[in-house]
Amino acid sequence: MKQTILLPALLSLAILLSSCAGANKAQVGAGGGAAAGALIGQAIGHNTEATLIGAAVGTMLGYMVGNEMDKYDREQLNHVYERGVSGQTNAWRNPDSGNSYKVTPQPAYTNPTTSQPCRQAEIQAVIDGKVETTYTTACRDQNGHWQLQN
User: Fold this and answer.
1) Which pTM was predicted?
2) Do the Cβ atoms of 30 and 59 come closer than 8 Å?
3) Max Cα separation, the chain?
4) pLDDT at 139 over 90
5) pLDDT of 23-81, one tens digit each?
6) Nearest to 117 by CA among 146, 140, 136
7) b/e map of 119-149 (b: 16 or more CB within 10 Å)?
8) Alpha carbons 108 and 94: distance in angstroms, whole number
9) Which residues, 6 or more positions from 74, have their beta carbon under 8 angstroms from its beta carbon?
10) 74-107: buried (b, 16+ CB within 10 Å) or exposed (e) per residue?
């Protein structure tokens, strides 16, 4: 019973954190990481403890990846969402930070609620020599820019 209440609450908190008008890239990453981590933790452990551990780990990883992406990286990520071939990994290394990224986009789909084109992607980041993997969803706004969702 606790699981049925806890998972939606965690997901709502993650979405709330990531959708705040003043949310920075680290907060968006943390929100998405928390949601993905909670889902993975629940799927693996099938209990509240696993869900909480998954959410905590996902929050940390999402925050780290989101915090490290600068303007150059966001432009590269936007390019992958816009023109990347589904299932094909795109990679780059940031010349200023030295961080590197591998992004594998999935097929685009239309969000049934907003009618926006959206895509999911797996992002593998190497930050300070440590490999972090996160999963994101971005939707195209009315100006044609891809905006990270939860």
Assistant:
1) 0.56
2) yes
3) 50
4) yes
5) 444 455 555 555 555 556 566 666 666 666 666 656 555 555 555 577 888 889 889 99
6) 140
7) bbbebbbebeeeebebbbbbbbeeeeebebb
8) 26
9) 25
10) eebbbebbbebeeeeebebebeeeebebbbbbee
Picking from 110, 116, 119, the residue whose alpha carbon sits closest to that of residue 82 is 119
What is the enclosing helix (H) or strand (E) of 110?
strand 109-110
Burial grade of 71 (CB within 10 A; 0-12, 13-18, 19 or more): exposed
Number of residues assigned to the chain: 150
Q: Specify the DSSP class assigned to residue 84.
A: P
Give kind and range of the element (H or E) at residue 40: helix 25-45
> Rounded CA gap, 5 and 62, in Å?
23
What pLDDT digit, counting tens, does each position of 78-119 carry? 899 999 999 999 999 998 889 999 999 999 999 999 999 999
| Sequence ranges of the domains in the chain | 2-68, 87-148
Query: Strand 117-127 to strand 109-110: parallel, antiparallel, or no bridges (unpaired)?
Result: antiparallel
pLDDT at 8: 44
